[in-house]
Every structure is written in C-alpha cells, then in structure tokens.
Design brief:
The complex is a heterodimer of chains A (448) and B (488).
Chain A (H helix, E strand, L loop, with lengths): L20 H5 L12 H6 L6 H12 L7 H8 L6 H5 L6 H15 L4 H13 L3 H16 L2 H8 L1 H5 L1 H8 L16 E2 L7 E6 L3 H5 L1 H13 L2 E4 L9 H5 L3 H14 L7 E4 L2 H7 L2 H4 L7 H10 E3 H8 L13 E6 L2 H4 L6 H9 L3 E4 L14 H4 L1 H16 L5 E4 L2 H13 L6 E2 L1 H10 L10
Parallel strand pairs in A: 2-3, 2-4, 4-5, 6-7, 6-8, 8-9
Antiparallel strand pairs in A: 1-3
Helix pairs in contact in A: 13-25, 19-21, 23-24
Chain B lengths: L8 H12 L4 E2 L2 H4 L16 E3 L4 H14 L3 E4 L16 E4 L6 E5 L4 E4 L5 H8 L4 E2 L12 H7 L6 H4 L6 E7 L5 E5 L10 H5 L8 E8 L1 E2 L3 E9 L2 H13 L6 E6 H10 L11 E9 L1 H17 L4 E5 L2 H12 L1 H4 L6 E4 L2 E2 L5 H15 L3 E6 L4 E8 L6 H18 L18 H4 L2 H14 L14 H4 L5 H6 L7
Parallel strand pairs in B: 2-4, 3-4
Antiparallel strand pairs in B: 1-2, 5-6, 6-10, 7-11, 8-9, 8-10, 12-14, 12-15, 13-14, 13-18, 16-19, 17-19, 18-19
Helix pairs in contact in B: 1-3, 8-10, 13-14
Classes of the chains: A alpha/beta (448), B alpha+beta (488).
Chain lengths: 448, 488
C-alpha cells in the first residue's frame, strides 16, 4: 500500500502522474466504447462507461469536480477489460488513462473500513502463494465436512457480507496438487532443442491450476523447448497493478525480473492472460525506476502468451483426436488476451488443429465474463450479472466444452455453470493440446 | 410556474427513486456532469436529474411526475446523436432509456420484432440473423446507437439508398405522451386507416414524447452480397461514377464516397490497408440480391467505375472481407480525433446531380475560412457529411467553424437540398429551419407539437428556432399564436 496520508476531504488528482490531458483530448465523445463496456452493459449509466469516465477524468484534471467517493465509485466500477481500447475508432489509450487514475483513487479517496479491510486481505494474501497455501489447509475441512454447503445454503454470508460471499462463492475445491512438490527448475526439451524458455507459474494458477502448469510444461518440452522454472518466482504484479497499488506492483515486478536474471532464456512464457498483459507492461510499470527501467523493458520484450508462442513456433508433433467423434468447443476470450494483448485468432487456430475439434463462436465474445481479477469480489452485483450472461452465451453455441485461458475467467464460468446446473467442463487450451499430443481423450482427463 | 432556482430537486429525486429505484436516479452534480452533452460535445448543459426507467410503466410514471411538477424533460438513448438532440435543457429531467434494453418479442413469421427504446440498433440484427433476417437501417454508429434514438432522429445509414430510413421500418409505437399517458400508434398491420401518427412521431426528435415499445419490420437477408471498392484520382471522377450507376437503373444497397483526407485519417487509426492513401476518393458500392443478379450487377458496376476513371476496383463477398472494406467508412467520423482535437460534422442533402458543383463550393469555403474539410458521404442519395477540423481549445474557433458549417448548409438549401439528412436538427441546426421552411410551414409543425405536448415540456427549445436560441430567426408572430407554450 502507498504510504500517503488519508484525507477526509475529497480533493482532485495529485501531481503524481494524473491521467494525461492530451490523451484525454483524443476522445471525440462518439460513444462507440459504450457498446463493449461490461459495466455500462449492466448499469446503463454514462458514468460507468469509458466515455463517462474519461469525461470525469477531464473534469478532475480541470478542477471542475472533486474526487468524491461517488466519483471514485465509477472508476472502481471499471473492470479493466480494455474492450473499449479495441473498440475506440479514435485510438484513445484508455488503458493508460485508467491505470493512471487508479493509484490516484488509492491515494486520495477515503475508503470505508470494511472496504479497506477486504482490500488489505486481498492484496496481502492472494498474490503470495506462500501465505495462501497454509490457509488452504484450513479450507479443506470447511469444504469436505459440509460447512461450505451449509454456509451457501443459509445465505447468511450473502446477506451480511455480500463481498465475502462473492469471494467464498468462487472458491474452487482445494486440489491436492496445491501441496504437491514444486515443478523442477529445469526440464530438457524432447528431441531436438529449438528454444530455451522461462516459464512463469503465476500465483493463483500455481495453487489452484497446477494441472494447467504441468500441461503447459509438457507441451513446451514436446515441441522442443528447454524450460527454466525458477523457484524463487512470486506473483507477476497483475493483481496489485490492476487495482492501482503501484508500490506493491513495482516491488513484485522487480522481484520477478530478479528471479529470471541469470536464466538466459529466449522467451518468457505465461499461460494466464491477466499475468501476460501485466508482464508485457513491465517497461511501463518500472519506467520511473532508474535501476530497473532497461531490464524491465528487456524482460517485457521476451514475454509471450503460451498460445501466441505455440502458434508462432508451430506444434511440429502430431495431434491425436481428444474425443470419439467431433467435439464442439467454445473458446472464451479472456479480456487480457483479446483486448490487452490482441490475441484472438491464435488460440482458436490452435484448438482447430486438434483433429475433430469444431470451434464455436459465442454472441458477445468480446464482452467480459465479470471475473476481471478480483472484480467479482469487489463489485459482486456487476460481476454476477456478467457471469450469468457469459455462461448463457457460451452454452447457446451448443458446445460441450469451454476453453478458457485465464484462471479468473475459469473460476467465474465454473461458478455460473454450477448455478445453472450445467455439467460442461472448462479446460485451459493447454490441457487440450497436451491431451492431443499424448493421445489422451478429454473424457479421461482427471477432473479439474 | 416556479422558477428553476426554487425547485426542491432533492424531493423530486426522492419521488423519482420511488418509481425507478435508488440506482435509477442520478442527482449528484459531479455524476450529472457526464450527461451534459451527447455526441455533439460542443454544446453543454448539465441536467438537474437523470432518471433511468426500465419499463413502459416506469417511464409513464416518470413523465407523469414531470407533467405534474411542470418539469421539462429530455430523452436520451446512448447519447451518440450528432445534432444535440439529447442535449439537456436547463433545469430538466434527463430520461435515459439505456436500461430499457430488452427485445420484447420476435415474430419471424410476420417479419417483426418489438423492442424497448434502449435496445442497440445492431442487437436487432444479431437476434434474428441466425434465422436469416436483418434490420435494414444502419447508421455508422449502429454498434451503439439505440433504436429509440433512431426513431427520434429518423436515422438513415449506408443502406437507406435502397431500403429507406427508419420511418420505413417502424410499424407501430407504444408512446408515453408528455402527460404520462400511454397510447398505441400504428400497429403490426402494414396499412392502417386514420392518421399516420407513427409517421408523425418518427423524426420528431423527442418533442412529442417517448417511444417506449417499438415494432420494427425485419427483412430477409439477401442471398448474396458483394462490396466493390473503387479508387479514383479525384472526387469528381468518383461522383461521375455514382451518376453513371444510377443512370444505368441500378439501385445498389449502398454507395459511399470518402475523400483523400478521410481516407488517410481512417488508415491512420483503423489501418485496414484497403483504402489507397494516394487516392483522391474511394467509392464503396454494395450490391445485394439473388446471386445471379449480384453477379451481373457487379460486373456492370465495375465497368461503369472503370469508364469513369477508376484506377483499381476490388471486391469482396466473404462476410469478414466485406466487413473489412466497410470498417474504415464506419469509423470515419471518430478517426478524425487523431487529425485534429475537434471536428464539426455537417449533415446536408443535395440533389445527386449537384454533387460535383457542391463539392467544389465546399472546397472554396474551406479555403476561404481556413479550416480543412474532410468529406464522407452517402453518395447515392446525396447526403453529405463534411467534417470540419478545428481546435476547440482555442477560444472563438467553434463559433467560426459554425459559421462555415452554416454556409455549407445554406449552399445545400440553395441548390434545392436540405439541412439534414439523418442526424436531425436538434439544438445545432434549429436556427437554419427558417432557411428551409416558410413561417406557415413552421407554424403547422408547431400546431402538431402543441397537440401532443400542450405544456411544451418535451425536449423544449429543440428542432424549431426560438427567440432565445436564434434571435431574429425565430419569428415573433408565431409566438403570439402559441401563448400557452413555454418559451426558453
């Protein structure tokens, strides 16, 4: 957290990197961004649209309005999905505008006590696997002994602490693999070595989706990569960065750069969309750091989303069918891949390479599923509605399997599938490619 | 009536909250700020309240409350209008329809849908395209503009050349009148006896009430569609190709011209790499119909373009490729954001035969006033969209640009055209109405307005010249005849 005095009286932006006035001026107020903005889709209020938020930023810069809790609430309502950046015909860099605004809110707006507590809990826990892991041990009896069922059924948590209830509701079953031995620090390529790559294991991904990481590792080695996985690596900084916790984000970024300092890799591979987007922003995040500035830019230049990398490097090994007969798969676009990294075709084309897979397209593919990092915990009402719409649209394609390349989206979609009583599996594309390489049927994969 | 300052807006907000719920009323000054303008950002006025109803009944109760309290109200859909139609007036309630966004009924057998006004234009097509239908009017902002706004402005789009504008596709309306009463006009049957009140309402720019449920006509998707993109050394050559195509008896789905400045602005942002940057103009022609017909017509169009001097003609039938050819045209206005801090878009109509002469005149006006003008237009029906580029941060620039815009509009009227093709009159062009209509014409329209809205609460000051907004342009004698109508 930033060590700034908290102010009771609302004020405007401070002088520390407020949103850039020239960038704001490129907005011509056409409103095209409203169409793809998930918070506007749910709320219908101009303040909760990119155009409205830019208008507020401008008024704050000009000193026309103050940074009150009401104003700040409309920056908090932004999911940070960046769909507006893809949609904007004037090329407004809203991603940078909102990234500059969030730390201003954190520094200059007095949050309520429960809000502060919840945020402190999230920022001090989720991005630290070493802190989270022991807590997961305590969760096992909670889930296995039926307490969870009781809590959910009673609706008490929902009534008295809706945001805690939201956090509880997306909790996946704690997998045994969360406590398994860590992956080796170096794995040799199978066959002729084509690349030497570093693998970033993520914080939530590592605990809840260890299976995805192991599938990614197998795919990378199978196509000829020597893989380096330093054990010292922590969170990539996406979580604090997306919430305007700049100091924490900068520290995490420096730590991760250090973890890979002597790895001498060609590329740094990440299989989680949200992390990938932040990793590619390192140059920007550490731009004011004289020691790390250049290292950060060099690090960012090596980052590749695993699907981007695989499509480019080509899977030169044969792929087997993963189902008996055709398999209809719908690919769920993670915002931080689609809008944040402009990666949309590669995952679809990779999936289509698997014999028998038919890739289906949902309505509103570019609209956020409402997970947005920890958004579904902080803004549960909007997150819920978007999750409901997303699952409805995914299922309407008739697909029998959902492919999702981001842990947050996966948890959100699973939760809403469960709420609608649908038993459609959600898998990371790497799990499917791995199965196709190994000749395993998707039905025989262990439940995730 | 009480003066604006004396109103207890907090009490009114609380009554509104009882109708639409707490989250449906915006009342803090900093939040209301974002509602102070629509797509025409140079005109600003903060509303006193913004209210977001979800149903016809809620909308009716909101307007009834306004009527009781004598509050002016302005309806707003997505706020993308370019004539300031949804610009608030001082001390008004802004009725935002964004939460009235449900498709209420789809009747494919009878080619109809019933939608709420906040439904986005292309959601209609999206909902029925799987079954082989679409909704024809397609303004460039179709990805976000609302059907309610389309009805208010009688919006067109690139396909209105062949298929007509919004009014040709609205079968019936459930209206909430300014006193809160709910009435049905028109209906599911294509021809009904009596006055065509749906026709009166479409294009009334929010001055007669709010359309709360709208029955729209759907069309069958064409069996085949081909888009041709021809590039020319000059705008004149592109214009003569248009004339030749129409003269040959061909009615394409759409025919659009973009000039060099627009091409380059679009390529800078959208980077379609379809539009050659060195072309004087490009002409986009969409041909649709039966496959054989499209095949034959396309060949003919291509030949006519080449005869008119086209340097190259490319075409696409594949949906993704067609979309790519159209993408730059659809983004043309907004792309100007990169070229200049501000743009002022005009919307005039001229007889197609006057195209070349009017474009030359516009270029002279552009040079005379010293502002670059980019031209994007629906060439088939002579609907021009000159975009005047300027820097609004410099004091006095907007006023100068408006004078240039006004001269362009007067030029359109002088050659036998109109001051608005599809964007509406709104706040922006009300002072030019008297250039186009006689006092008797305008008075007739005022009679109609007064029948629907005797207290003058619905979007007051819009559409017609008033003494306050236009000074001399508003005629004093017409005022005397409408003593009951409130003046602003």
């Amino acid at each position: 957290m930033e060590n700034q005095p908290r102010l009771a009286v609302p004020r405007a932006f401070d002088a520390n990197h407020p949103p850039d006035a020239q960038m704001i001026d490129t907005c011509v107020h056409c409103g095209f961004c409203l169409a793809t903005c998930p918070s506007y889709r749910v709320l219908g209020t101009e303040m909760d649209s990119p155009r409205g938020r830019i208008y507020l930023m401008d008024a704050l810069n000009e000193g026309e309005i103050s940074l009150s809790q009401a104003t700040a609430g409309h920056f908090d309502s932004c999911l940070g999905c960046l769909a507006c950046v893809s949609t904007c015909p004037s090329g407004v860099q809203y991603d940078q505008l909102i990234a500059a605004t969030r730390p201003q809110v954190e520094r200059n707006v007095e949050r309520s006590v429960p809000d502060r507590l919840l945020r402190a809990l999230i920022f001090n826990l989720l991005p630290y696997p070493r802190r989270l892991r022991p807590l997961l041990l305590a969760l096992i009896p909670y889930q296995k002994l039926g307490v969870q069922k009781l809590v959910r059924k009673s609706g008490l948590l929902q009534k008295f602490a809706p945001r805690l209830a939201a956090m509880e509701s997306i909790l996946p079953a704690v997998p045994a693999s969360a406590f398994a031995a860590p992956m080796p620090e170096r794995v040799a390529a199978q066959g002729k070595q084509r690349f030497r790559v570093g693998m970033i294991t993520g914080c939530v991904q590592r605990l809840f989706f260890d299976r995805v990481n192991r599938a990614t590792l197998r795919v990378l080695t199978a196509i000829g990569c020597e893989v380096v996985i330093p054990r010292s690596q922590g969170c990539c900084a996406a979580l604090p960065q997306h919430q305007g916790q700049s100091a924490q984000a900068r520290q995490m970024a420096r730590d991760l750069i250090d973890s890979f300092a002597d790895s001498n890799v060609d590329y740094l591979i990440i299989n989680a969309a949200g992390c990938g987007h932040t990793l590619k922003e390192y140059g920007h995040i550490l731009a004011d750091d004289p020691v790390y500035r250049e290292r950060a830019a060099a690090f960012a230049a090596k980052v590749r989303d695993v699907q981007e990398f695989l499509y480019w490097a080509k899977i030169l090994v044969p792929l087997q069918p993963i189902a008996d007969g055709p398999l209809a798969v719908v690919y769920q676009d993670a915002c931080h891949l689609l809008h944040g990294q402009r990666i949309s075709l590669q995952p679809r084309q990779l999936l289509a390479q698997i014999p028998g897979v038919q890739v289906r397209e949902p309505v509103d593919a570019a609209l956020c599923c409402g997970s947005a990092g920890v958004y579904n915990i902080l803004q549960p009402e909007i997150g819920e509605e978007l999750g409901r719409q997303k699952v409805e649209n995914l299922l309407a394609t008739g697909a029998v399997l959902i492919a999702s390349a981001n842990p947050g989206c996966t948890l959100q979609i699973r939760k809403h599938l469960e709420l609608t009583g649908q038993a459609v599996p959600v898998r990371h594309p790497m799990e499917l490619i791995d199965a196709a390489i190994r000749g395993v049927k998707v039905a025989d994969l262990p439940a995730s | 009536m009480p003066t604006l300052a004396k109103r207890n807006w907090r009490a009114i907000a609380q009554q509104m909250e009882q109708i639409v719920g707490k989250s449906g009323v915006v009342w803090t000054p900093e939040e209301l700020l974002v509602f102070e303008c629509d797509g025409l950002a140079s005109y600003k006025q903060r509303p006193a309240l913004a209210v977001l109803p979800r149903t016809t009944e809620e909308a009716s109760r909101v307007l009834a409350l306004c009527y009781r309290e004598g509050l002016p109200f302005v309806a707003r859909g997505s706020g993308t209008g370019l004539s300031g139609g949804a610009l608030p007036v001082e001390g008004c309630v802004l009725v935002v329809t964004a939460r009235m966004n449900r498709i209420l009924a789809i009747d494919l057998d009878n080619h109809q849908v019933v939608v709420q006004p906040g439904v986005i234009n292309n959601w209609v097509t999206q909902a029925v395209s799987g079954a082989g239908f679409y909704y024809a009017p397609d303004p460039s902002s179709q990805s976000i503009c609302s059907i309610g706004g389309n009805v208010a402005e009688n919006s067109g789009g690139v396909h209105c050349l062949k298929y007509g504008v919004t009014t040709n596709h609205v079968l019936g309306l459930k209206l909430v009148l300014p006193d809160g009463e709910i009435v049905d006009v028109g209906g599911p049957v294509p021809e009904s006896p009596g006055y065509d009140l749906a026709g009166v309402f479409v294009g009334s720019e929010g001055t007669l009430g709010i359309a709360a449920e709208i029955t729209l006509r759907l069309l069958r998707s064409a069996e085949s569609i081909r888009v041709l993109l021809a590039d020319f050394a000059t705008v004149e050559a592109a214009g003569s190709a248009v004339t030749a195509i129409i003269a040959a008896g061909i009615v394409p789905g759409g025919m659009e011209i973009m000039d060099n400045l627009s091409i380059n602005a679009v390529e800078d942002v959208v980077a379609t790499e379809c539009y050659p940057r060195d072309a004087g103009a490009i002409l986009l022609v969409e041909v649709d119909g039966l496959a054989v017909e499209v095949e034959a017509t396309s060949t003919q169009v291509e030949a006519l373009c080449r005869e008119a001097g086209a340097r190259a003609v490319r075409s696409a039938t594949d949906p993704a490729e067609r979309l790519k050819l159209w993408k730059g045209r659809k983004a043309a206005f907004a792309a100007m954001g990169r070229r200049a801090p501000n743009y002022y878009v005009q919307d005039g109509v001229i007889p197609r035969t006057k195209l070349q002469c009017v474009l030359q005149q516009i270029e002279l006006l552009s040079k005379k006033h010293g502002y670059p003008v980019a031209n994007v237009f629906h060439a088939g029906d002579g609907n021009l969209h000159p975009l005047i580029l300027y820097d609004g941060r410099i004091a006095g620039e907007l006023e100068k640009v408006e004078i240039l815009g006004g001269e362009i509009l007067k030029l359109c009227v002088a050659v036998g055209g109109s001051i608005s093709g599809e964007h509406g009159i709104g706040a922006e062009k009300r002072c030019y109405m008297s250039d186009m209509f006689t006092p008797a014409d305008l008075e007739t329209m005022q009679w109609v307005r007064a029948v629907f809205d005797p207290k003058g609460l619905a979007n007051p000051t819009k559409l017609f010249p008033t003494p306050r907004t236009c000074g001399e342009a508003a005629r004093a004698e017409s005022e005397a005849r409408f003593a009951a109508v409130e003046r602003f």
